[in-house]
């Protein structure tokens, strides 16, 4: 799998200092997009492609910190900047963990128009504890050219332990899959990971209070089997 360099841009970011710290930003064309978990970012005018760093700074300045509404939620947005990858093909991949298994969706027509091309999306269901084999994956990649079918099949079968993962799009760079835009969800079984607040989510005073207590006090819950905490 191909992974790219990236850097977050917030209201406190000094672009000149960032350029000194990350020289690659001035050496190639760039992509800038929201660092938030919601879809339709491109159609909302929040993604820009093939820019230089000066153009990125202008694009971000016009939008950074301003409240936007997506899916009924409102909130300010931050951005990330990453290298622009020239490409001709855009694929779509979505994997959703469900109670009895995983739904896997794939399309050769990924990108900003995925919803308009939803009839071209193939979906299979892989039950829990059933091997995800080439035979199982076959309906997803049946129409792909032979020269890329095997590589994309192995990519789809890669186990990354997300509860939800969507790549829209991913492409091929030197014959290897390269996610150009991805969003995912994890559960706390991943361990010591700090999860950001969902877009538009603001903690209530009670939640803030409990969060503050949690940061100050470390308690082994197994020592308190008879205590329950309820919030309203």
UniProtKB/TrEMBL annotation:
Gene3D superfamilies assigned to the protein according to its UniProt record, in alphabetical order: 3.30.470.110
Coiled-coil region: none
InterPro entries associated with the record: Citrate_synth_N (IPR056749)
Residue stretches making up the ATP-citrate synthase ATP-grasp domain: 7-189
Annotated TM spans: none
Organism: Rhododendron williamsianum
Domain of life: Eukaryota
Protein name: ATP-citrate synthase ATP-grasp domain-containing protein
